[in-house]
Amino acid sequence: MIIECPAKINLSLDVVGKREDGYHLLQMIMQTIALYDRVKITKNNEMVITCNKIDVPCDRSNIAYRAVEVMKEKFNIEDNFKIEIEKNIPVAAGLAGGSTNAAAVIKGLNDMYSLNLSIDQMKEIGLKLGADVPFFFEGGTCLAEGIGEKLTKLNDVSCHLVVAKPPINVSTKYVYQNLKLDEIAVHPDTKRIIQYINSNDIRSLAESMVNVLETVTVREYPVIFEIKNIMMEFGALGSLMSGSGPSVFGIFEDKADALKCHNRLRDYIKEVFVVSTINRGV
Ligand SMILES: C[C@@](CO)(OP(=O)(O)O)[C@H](O)COP(=O)(O)OP(=O)(O)OC[C@H]1O[C@@H](n2ccc(N)nc2=O)[C@H](O)[C@@H]1O
Ligand SMILES: Nc1ncnc2c1ncn2[C@@H]1O[C@H](COP(=O)(O)OP(=O)(O)O)[C@@H](O)[C@H]1O
């Protein structure tokens, strides 16, 4: 069984508070994009995980492996599996590559064993593995609240994008730890952004995008700001860092402009893609 699993971007990201356990409460707009990993699941004598990218761990610390363990325990599955991950989504990039792999395993085993789980049940299992996992059972365009688990479906946004992952590593934990909530000068107007999305006003959406986590990352990694500027120079309607970074995306009305921007960025960034939004998850 092979499952295609898409990456996500955050069309906006606001931090609106903190939970008692230190986790940040969010209001973000999430969007699946046509940039896919492939997860192949086959029954095997023992548990094995493989990946074509060396920076992805192929042991129990792989989130896809943990997803298998959670499913095996919850549904008394005694079989073991070989999980082969074809990784096309940049790793540790703010594009939720690991989370989408975990969602693919849950969905794959649900189908393989005819468990007939509802989307809500799969979301609940996914949340045990990571805050971004439940979103992939919805896909398309969603408002995510709480730490990402409270999902509201919005009108699906349809546009061309350039996504660029500069060759730097940013830890999600570090970004949240260094966020100074009381010093954030600009928050996104999430209500207004939702109105733009629901009325299909892509231009106003693109012009209103804000990710408050940029206050941490752009200070430390000016390359993020430089990529945003290049995207705007090449005609992007708006450009933003995705999640905790370091990936940056630009929204383009015209695919030809997106391709020109891609050509320019390709000179010094290896991981850059022209993609469209999609209206599905795993
Ligand atoms: C920023 C976002 C936006 O979609 O995505 P990515 O950039 O990872 O794709 C998410 O909030 C990433 O959530 P999640 O995937 O759960 O983050 P993890 O890497 O598990 O979290 C690492 C650490 O960040 C902190 N953390 C995480 C989520 C959150 N809402 N508040 C936090 O304070 C916690 O200290 C946690 O231990
Ligand atoms: N299946 C997986 N795919 C990618 N990374 C994984 C996976 N399992 C575990 N990881 C680890 O999780 C970390 C975060 O990766 P990823 O999910 O790609 O990024 P992000 O959280 O920024 O969206 C990586 O540094 C990697 O070591």
Task: Describe the overall structure.
The chain is α+β, with helices and mostly antiparallel strands and 282 residues long. Helix content is 33%, strand content 28%. It has helices at residues 63-74, 97-112, 119-129, 172-177, 190-198, 202-208, 214-220, 222-233, 255-266; strands spanning 2-18, 24-44, 48-51, 80-86, 141-146, 150-153, 160-165, 238-241, 248-252, 271-276. Strands 1, 2, 3, 4, 5 and 6 form a 6-stranded mixed beta sheet that branches. The chain has a 4-stranded antiparallel beta sheet with strand order 8-9-7-10, with helices on both faces. Helix 2 crosses helix 3, helix 5 runs antiparallel to helix 6 and helix 7 crosses helix 8. The mean pLDDT is 97. The structure holds 4-diphosphocytidyl-2-C-methyl-D-erythritol 2-phosphate and adenosine-5'-diphosphate. 4-diphosphocytidyl-2-C-methyl-D-erythritol 2-phosphate binds at residues 10, 22-24, 26, 94, 96, 130-132, 147-148, 172-173, 176, 243-244.
What is this structure's SSE topology?
Layout: E1 2-18, E2 24-44, E3 48-51, H1 63-74, E4 80-86, H2 97-112, H3 119-129, E5 141-146, E6 150-153, E7 160-165, H4 172-177, H5 190-198, H6 202-208, H7 214-220, H8 222-233, E8 238-241, E9 248-252, H9 255-266, E10 271-276
Parallel strand pairs: 3-4
Antiparallel strand pairs: 1-2, 2-4, 2-5, 5-6, 7-9, 7-10, 8-9
Helix pairs in contact: 1-2, 2-3, 5-6, 7-8
Adenosine-5'-diphosphate is lined by residues 56-57, 61-64, 85, 91-99, 101, 172, 243.
Structure summary:
Helix content is about 35%, strand content about 30%.
